[in-house]
Each structure stands twice: as C-alpha cells, then as structure tokens.
Amino acid sequence: MYDIKALYEAESIEHAVKLLAEHPEAQIIAGGSDVLVQMREGKRAGKELVSIYGLDEMRGVSFEADGAIRIGSLTSFSHITRDPIIKEHINVLGEAVDMVGGPQIRNIGTIGGNTCNGVTSADSASTLHAWDAVVELTGPNGVRRIPIHDFYIRAGVVDLRPGELQTAIIIPKASYEGYKGHYIKYAMRNAMDIATTGCSVNVKLSSDKMVMEDVRIAYGVAGPVPMRAPQAEEAAKGKTVSGGNVKAFAETVLKDINPRDSWRASKEFRQHIAVVLAERALRESIRLAGGVIDE
Amino acid sequence: MSKQYKLVSCTINGKQVEKMVDVRASLTDMLRDDYRLTSVKKGCEVGECGACNVIIDGECFNSCIYLAVWAEGKEILTLEGLAGPNGEISDIQQAFIDEAAVQCGFCSPGFIMSAVEILEAKREFSDDEIRKLMSGHLCRCTGYENIFRAVKKTMLRRLGKEKEALEV
Amino acid sequence: MYVGKKVTRVDAYDKVIGRTKYTDDLCDKSAYIARVVHSTIAHGRVVSIDTSEAEKIPGVVKVFTCFDLKEKHYFPTAGHPWSTDPGHQDVADRLVLTEEVRFYGDDIAAVVAEDEVSAAQAVRAVKVEYEEYPFVLDVQEAMKDGAPQIHEEYPNNILKHTSIRKGNYEEAIKEPGLTKIEGWYDTPTVQHCHIENFICYAEMEGDRITVVASTQIPHIVRRVVGQALGIAWGKVRIIKPYIGGGFGNKQDILYEPLCAWLCMQLGGHLVKLDVPREDTFVSNRVRHAIRSHIISWVRPDGTYAARKLEAYSDQGAYASHGHSIAAKGAGAFPQLYPCDNVEADAYTVFTNKSVAGAMRGYGIPQAMWAVECHTEDVAAKLHIDPVEFRRKNLMPVGYIDAFSKNELYDDTFNQCLDKAMETIDYKRKFKEYQNQTGDIRRGIGVAVFWYNTAVWPISLETSSCRMVLNQDGSLQVQLGETEIGQGADTAYTQMTADVLGVPLEDVHVVSCQDTDVTPFGTGAYASRQTYTAGFSIRQTALLLKERILKYAHELTRMPPYNLDIADGSIVRTTDGRKLMTLGELSTEALYSLTNSQHLSAESTAQIKSNAYSFGCTIAEVEVDIPMCKVKLIDIVNAHDAGTLINPALAEAQVHGGMSMGIGYGMSERLIFDKKTGRALNNNLLDYKLSTFMDHPRLKAVFAENTEPTSAFGTKALGEPPACSVAPAIRNAVYQATGVGVNDAPVNPHNLFRRFTEEGLI
Question: Cβ–Cβ of B136/A5 closer than 8 Å?
Fold first, then answer.
C-alpha cells in the first residue's frame, strides 16, 4: 500500500496535460519503477499522482516522415529491445536498455521514465546522448522538441515545464544513418544493478573503412548528468582507424569527464574504468562498422 | 483525506473478477489481500527480489511496484493458476520438484512464473540466455543451480529433446 | 530403505503450487501494524521523543517510546540453549526499546497503526531529541584507550578475549632456517538476506500470549519472550510456520519480544510486525566482520615450526552470539594445520554498528578466509605446490581433539581434494594457467575448511521426539528441530520410515512447531538438525516399535522377538509371513473393547558427541585486469558429511552454501558511513548479492564416510558449504595475476586498489 494522496488516471495525452494543469503538485507516474520506490522511501510520500501508464498511444517505435525513429515515451525497455526498427537501425539502444535491472523491470520500465528522472546512471541515457536524440514534450502550449543534452538540467532535474509530459524520443535520421555503436555497462554484478559507469560509443567510418569520419561518445555516471566527451570526440574525428588512435581517443576522455567520489566507487576508479570502456566500446563500434584495427 | 477506491475488473487465473480496490494498493496487495493469492510473496517491495512476480498479459511483472488499478482489463496469472482443474500440476512445477529446485520455497512462485514466460516462447535458449531471463529473481537457498536444471530440462522436453534433457 | 535415497521433499508439492503458508499468509487482516522507529545517530542517549504529530495521524493507534517501559527486563538474544550456570549465560543487554543508543538503527520507539500507510507516516512524524556521544566503527580503534565506551561494564569495548597456547611459540621461532610469512586478512560485514524478511505477530488468549514468528528457534524464543516481558515462560506460546530462509539471522531473538510487548500494551489486540528489507540489513543481525593477523614460521621442508593468530571480531552494538563466533573460528586454527607451537588470541569487540550474530558457518567462513589465503601465501613464498603443501600439513587421520574428543576417522581431506581435483580437471588447468601474460588471465585456486557438527561440549545438545500412531497405521512425528528450508522434515521422514519399517507416505512430520505441543528442542543451528534429531528419532521409533510388537504379540500370540515391522506390516521373522498390516493392528488397538491402547512414544536423547565435517572448494576464474573484474567460470565443492540421508537434498544444500560463499568472496559487503555510522547500502540493489547471471554451474561431490558417533552415520552439511568458497576464489585470482587480495570481497574496488599497488594497471 503506497502513501498516495490521490490518483488521477489520464485517458489521453490531452487529458494528462489537463490533469497536470489542475494538479500542479502532482507527480507523473509512468511505469512506476522509480516513482513508487521513492514513494515507499518517503521521498515522494503523500503526493498526488497522475498516471499515464494507460496511454497506449505513447507506446511503440515508428518512423517519422523524414526517416527519424520515434520511440513513444511509454515504450518499455523490453519492447524497445525486441523492436525490428531498433534492431536494424540503432541496435545498441536495444542492447543498452536490455541491461537495465532484470526482466521484470525491463517490462515495466519505460524509456520516458528512464530519462525524465534525470539520473546519470540511466542505461538508456548515455546511448541517447551519443546518438543526438531529441526529446518531444507535450504541454499546455502544444508540442516542443529539444535536444536531449538540453533536456537534462542538473542531477535529478530535467526541462519538464508545468503541465508538460514527455511524449516521445526521436533519433533523427542524420544521427543514425551510417553509424554503428556499442554500449558497455560497468556494474558490480551482471544483473539487477545500476551502472557504476556506462559508456556508449558510435562511429561512422569512411567508405573504405579506413577513417573515423565521426565518433560520438557519452557516459553515464561520469558527471552529475549523462554527458558527452567532446574533446575525445574531436581527438578521434577524421583519424585513421588504428589502435594508437583508439587509445589516444580513450585517454582524452579524462579531459572531459568529472566523476565524483562516492561510497559506490572512487573517482580514481571511475576515471580508470571510463578510459578502459572508451577504448573497448570504440573498438567494438569500429568492428561493427566493418573496420579493422591492425595491431 | 477520504479514501479513494476504484472498481477494478480483470481476469485472474482464467476467471473474470471485479472488486473495489484502494487506489493506493499495489497489485501484490490486491492479489494477497483481496483475492488471498498468497503465492505472491513480499521480499523487498521495491522490485529487487522477484518474489512477487506474476504474469500480466503474457509478460512478467513485479506486482509490488505495479499499481492495482492498472490491472483493469488485464489478464493476470499467478502460481495458483498453473495447476489444472483437478490439481494436476504443470511440467515446470513437476520439474521444480524433481530437480530439488525448491528449498525454503519463498522465492519459488516468482521463479516458476518467470519460467512459464520463458517456456511460452517455445524456443531453445542458450544457457546464458536462460540465466539472463531468470535474473530478475534472488534466491538465497539454491545457488540457482537446480532452478536452472528445472527450467532447461523442461524447455528441452517441450521441444521434444528428451535425450538432451537428461544431460542437463 | 529410504535413508540414502533421493526422496522427494515432503513439502515440495505445496511449495510449487503456492499453498505453503508462511507467517504473513496466516495473519488475520484485522491485525494492527507495528513499525519500529530507529535511531538516526550511532551513539548517544534519547533525551525526549515527541509523538504528538504522529499520534494525530488518522489510523495511528498509539506510539510507544523507550520512556514507556515501566520495568526494564534486560534480555539476551542469542539462540543458544539456556545455561543454568549464570557464568555461562548469554549477555542480557537488550530492552524492547532503548534510551541508550548504541548504533544507527537502534530501536527507540514503535508505532502501532491500523494500516501500513499510517504506520509509515507516523514513523516519519516522530520527533526525537538526542544527546550525542562520539562513536567508533572500527574494531581496533574501539579497543584503544580513550575510545568511546559502548557498554560500561566492558573496558576498551572488549566483550571477551580468549587465548589458545600450545608449545612455546617464542622459543620455536628461534629455530634456524625458518621463513616468516605474515599477513592481515579482513572479512566484511554481510547479511543473511533470506528472501522472507523477519516477521511476527502476537495476540493474547486469556492471560497468555501467542507469537507466530519466522524463526529457527521457537523454544528459545519462548524463553526469551518470557524473560523480556518479565512473565512466566509457560505463559508464552510460540508458533513457527514455514519460513522463507533463516541462515542464522533467525537463530536470534529479533522482534518477538517487542511485538509481544506492544500486544500486551494494547490489551492483547493482534499486532503484526513485518520488518522492511532495509531494516533487515541494519536492525536484525549481520555476520561478524573479522580482521585476522597470521604469522607462520615455516621450515625449508614445508612444515610449520610455529604459528600465531590474532583475530578481532566486530560485534557491533550488542552482545547477541558474542564471542562464540570468534572463538569457534580461532578454535579451528590450531586444528586444521596442527603445529607444535601455536598462539591464538581472539577478541570480540563492541562497535557502534549493526549487531553481529550467527550466520551460516559461525566464524568459520571468516577463519577460513584468513587461514586459507595465508596458506596460499605460504605455499607461494616457499614455491611449493599449493595442494601438496596442504596435504602435507593438514590434520592427519586419527587426530583427536582433547576438548571435544572429536576424531578424524577417515582420510577425508585427501579424499575430498582428490574428488574435487578430478571433477574440475585441476592438474591440467593449474599447469596451463602458470605464467600468463596479457589483460585477460585465468587461474584456479583451492581452499579447504574445518567445521564441526553441533555444539557439544560447549553447550547442551538434546533432542526430543514424539511419535503417535494413527488408526490407519500412519503416524505423526514431532520434533523441536526445525524445518527452515534445508529439508529437515524430509530427512526425518526417511529416518522414521526406516527405523519403524513403514512406507514413507505413512510418516507425517508435523512441520509447524508450536511450543504448546511440540516436544522441546533448541532449533535449527550449528548444522545439527539431522545429526541430533537422528538420535531421538531412532530412540523414539524403537520405543514405539517395541510397544507395537508387544501389542502384536497380544493379538497374534507370537513372541515379540519373532516379530518385526516391514513395509507397514507385522511380519513373523521365522517364516517371513505377513500377519497383519500396521493399520489393522492400530485400528484394533484403538477401538478394542477389551484392550484399548493409544500407541505412541516420546523420548529425549541427550547427545554427548560432536563430529568433524570437512571438505574443500576449487574455483576457476577469468580475470579481466584492466576492467578489475573476475568471472567465476567453474567451481566444485567436496564434502565428507558422513552418510547422506538424501543425496539430492544434500547436493542442494551444498549449492546454496556455495552461492553464499560466492557472494562473500566476490561482491557482498554492508558499508557504513564513516561520518554518521549509517548503513549506506541496506537494500537489495546496493547490497550486491550475486544473481543468477553471476553463477556458473555449481558442482557438489561427496566422500561418504559413515560417521561412527552418529545415529544414521550423518554429520554437518548445512553450514560447511559456505566455508571455503571465498578463499578458493581469492586463490584462483592469485594464480591468475600474482596478486593476492586479502580484504574480502574480491570485488572491482579491491582489485583496482591491489592492481594499482602491484603495477598491473
């Protein structure tokens, strides 16, 4: 039994917006795997909830007219992993969310909830950052779209304005076409864990597979919110595919990231792992893109 | 605050049911308290242990972090719903018995329900895939070994691989 | 015969159909809900508690605080048999609610409400004012002069210090040519993590109180509830239904006294106290973290000249099982690898942390971590093969311990090592994994363990059994030894059927224990259930058999010595003829107009023996050095648990213990905030139990040497499987990388530190 002050169940997106406007103090609940846990801890106890769990219109993966991939915010992790569009065009996202918690959590957890809670360890977030995803927000003033990087304001806080809910996450065609990527979750056990550090890398190789035309890398738990490593990306862009260049790229991430010391892991440990993950994730991305690294 | 209730109609273990439910209730609360389906266990109440796992519309969920009102219109299966009308048990339940996969028994209902979802896929999973599909449950008695055997053997038997099942 | 066969668990069917009832399943929904208010400081005194806001919350019945205790009945909590000698009684240092706060999470107040939401709200609304004292979390810091004093009567916070002296250590180390090997070995605080949290409910009937509890030790709980409430023990009735695991945590009195006290304050109204998982980690019991220092002086031929151990056991805030744990661990030290000159000192020390109690292995997992890591270090330093070094020094066949009179009858260690090595292909792998380079390396490691069954002669060993013959010839069997998931009821069923000569399905072991009706027994601990219950089962079954045959004699005129019971029938031994079924006899006995008898038997066996139960683990790992990660690839445990009563259940026990050892060796530790003393990872997400995906296939093999002291040839198997796994994993990592991790667990944090120190990364 949860300490819920009142529960309002939205019947449509418009209805959800209306309910949120009527109950400005209310918390949105999607799958509930974070909200209900926090409520039990006492953090959100006694709150009103607006449940959007029943909004099937916010589920599923599809193409938009311009070829962008649209992921409804309520799409569960397991459905993202199994989706044929995801598998073909951005398989790494399906792999990343397949590392969240365990099977039951992946059935209830949604990509919208995973990003709206604003935590740096979210397994979807680094990959979405690394693929320049766009967040679609629907509110009293209609729909707006912002880059995911701008959506995250600070730890636990996202750009969700009064009356707004996140309705979709979009991967523009230019962001995925020609790219191959790999995500590594570093955790203390192989299931039911949160990332100590998560690293998502993708690469676009030249047609002869000899040059890294573009490299993108994002981390979870390397800072207060998921983040890109721009200096490392610059260090790799346009470089030839080689072990030395991959290593140089990986070592550059230390200029970008700022992990903190906590009881979960020391700063030094996270920095060390971040470099190892960058190298391994880029190597695997290159392999997936058809490149060969000569040793 | 006045208490808020909602009529929840759903199918539980094949039977159409409806009851007024406190909106604050988790599905675990509803199944245990309103329907007395006590195979649904509470081990952590935050979705970490898997003891409260049930199948909703064919997929496994930790009922502790699932609001009871969301059950509206859903088809729910708990361990109590696995046995046939005359008490005949399913192959996976029998396998849990035969493989000594049950010790204290507290996690068993949740594990068996995840096994049911795996077996419903009607395909052969690798050992690592089985481990991953069962990884949403914690067990402190068995080391997962005999649970693994029970699931793998039943999977192989359903696929007609009796000989391979003996080698698990 | 059923003993020795893979008989199906008697409770398996109910457990797989979801019919088995645990405590919460039995509690009526009219129960008030109790929640404990825990201290939010590590050390100090409660000055005042303001309950006014909490009591205004609708649904709250009452809030009780430590100041509501009119009489202070201090009670002990260890699940030990009571001692009639005051000098040997457990330390009585607990109250149901306390003003004196000794750890972050101490029990200072309790809320009773009509529902769990109001109860949770009330817990948050209770305002507490404290006077704070300095606190100490480290066991060796706590021993220093001037350290915060946690209990007045224990200077330097030392609950107890015991010493073992053998030969002359100081003289022995003067022998020329010795190599000195020294190391510090540390084990973490871990928790049992049974999937069913502790839960109990209490209700009064007349002037008596009934507590239904998830416990391993119902009869001990009855005594302590009586002590804690200051009421006659006979006025307390404890009922133990099926429980969702215990592993030693429930071998302690947890919240039964508080729940009973709350019930009594509320006129006997039904009160349920269901402990949340977060509180289970902090405010139940944990396993003692033990820091050990070992020095060995070794001759060039690989024999020990002298050895020394100092062990510092972190008791946490209250005495609970106290020094018994460290003492058991230290007691293993001079025995496992006997040496003529030994000094061993064990200290159990209070700190301002969660209370340590019994947990599977009872000091042996900690001791084996220290001893077997050290053994590996010694072998490495002397360039001797680690298995051969162990074989050379291990307790020899025929060894007799002067104190317990335990004897090593068989060549257990070598048999177990041989079986385990063969199962895992040790020799080939050990050779293959020598001198590796590169980022990813493999290794294989060995560790042995010492364990003994039951608690004689340190404390009482007794078991009672009652058998009642039904009209149809079937029988009920009752024992004070408890089923806690390990399969005890099934083993009892097999034993009874064999001694009495009846089919298995005719034996009904009453699983639920009720101190009003169940014969006295001290419960499940010390891996003693099968061993101790075996004596009373055999004795009682023989007594019942004698009575049955006497009645059969009256019915058949055949002399009793020419009669036997086989397969549920009275058989004439001279020609093997079946004279009647036990059902026919029993019906006649009950309803006879001329000679009606209720055939039953009850007896108590006092057990004045104890048995060694030894074995080993071999683990194979793959280490990813840059990632600071270990993958367990293969693992085998070998045990000599005597005759296996049920090989399938024995194997399952071993799997479970191995799994706990895997967590102990690789991932588990409860972390306390140095600034506040608060536990930081007291939930199942942040406390890293190893999951299905962290386990390889588990292998269990046995050397079945019949134990001569035992009623059925059996001996300990509940705890032994958890004892040698962690050091075997550590030693495998050592072979792979040349780096020894002396602080368990061998997790990425410790590997990162050690690999950095050793220049591997």
Answer: no
- Picking from B81, B102, B131, the residue at the C-terminal end of a domain is B81
| Residue A120, pLDDT above cutoff 90 | yes
C-alpha C632, offset from chain centre: 25
How far, in Å, CA of C344 to CA of C330, rounded?
7
pLDDT 10s digits, C211-229: 999 999 999 999 999 999 9
Per-residue pLDDT tens digits for C523-570: 999 999 999 999 999 999 999 999 999 999 999 999 999 999 999 999
Q: Which part of chain C has CATH 3.30.365.10?
A: 362-455+611-757, 462-606
Architecture of C13-133+198-274 per CATH?
Alpha-Beta Complex (3.90)
Q: Please give the average per-residue pLDDT across A73-85, as a whole number.
A: 98
Give residue-wise pLDDT tens across range C322-338: 999 999 999 999 999 99
A66's CB contacts (< 8 A; 6+ apart) are A172, A173
Confidence (pLDDT) at B2: 61
Query: pLDDT tens, A148-165?
Result: 999 999 999 999 999 999
Contacts of C12 in chain B (CB under 8 A): 96-97, 100, 102
Question: Do B97 and B61 fall into the same domain?
Answer: no
C124 shares contact with chain A (CB less than 8 Å): yes
Distance CA A71, CA A176 (A): 14
Residue B77 touches chain C, beta carbons under 8 Å: no
Q: What is the pLDDT of residue B85?
A: 83
Helix (H) or strand (E) holding C343: strand C342-350
Q: Backbone dihedral region of A35: left (phi > 0), alpha (psi from -120 to 50 degrees) or beta?
A: alpha
Q: Please determine, for residue A233, whether its predicted confidence score (pLDDT) is greater than 60.
A: yes
Chains that touch B (3 or more CB pairs under 8 A): A, C
* Percentage of residues of chain B with pLDDT beyond 90: 95
Of A7, A4, A54, A12, the closest CA to residue A30 belongs to A54
The residue type of A113 is G
Q: How far apart are CA B106 and CA C20, in angstroms?
A: 9
Distance from CA of C56 to the nearest CA of B (A): 13
Identify the pLDDT of residue B86. Answer: 86
What does the block give as tokens for C140? 């060796």
User: pLDDT of C433-474, one tens digit each?
Assistant: 999 999 999 999 999 999 999 999 999 999 999 999 999 999
CATH class of the C362-455+611-757 domain in this structure: alpha beta
Q: Is a pLDDT exceeding 60 seen at residue B1? A: no
- Which of B65, B125, B131, B137 has the most A C-beta neighbours within 10 Å, making it the best mutation to test the interface with A? B65
Q: How is domain A4-51 classified at the CATH fold level?
A: 3.30.43
> For residue A85, what is the enclosing H or E element?
helix A84-89
User: Which of A30, A138, A16, A28 lies closest to A74 in space, CA to CA?
Assistant: A30
d(CA C202, CA C32) in angstroms, rounded, equals 10
CATH topology of domain A56-174: 3.30.465
Fold category of C462-606 in CATH: Aldehyde Oxidoreductase; domain 4 (3.30.365)
> Is A286 in contact with A241 (CB distance < 8 Å)?
yes
Residues B115, B76 within the same domain: no
| C-alpha to C-alpha distance for C281 and C687, rounded to whole angstroms | 9
Cβ pair C12:B140 closer than 8 A: no
Provide, as residue numbers in chain A, all residues whose Cβ is less than 8 Å from the Cβ of B128: none
d(CA C322, CA C316): 10
Among 3.30.390.50, 1.10.10.10, 3.40.50.720, 3.40.50.150, name the CATH number for the domain at A179-288.
3.30.390.50
pLDDT in tens, C194-210: 999 999 999 999 999 99
ipTM summary value: 0.98
Is B60 within 8 Å of chain A by CB? yes
Say how far apart CA C524 and CA C444 lie, in whole Å.
35
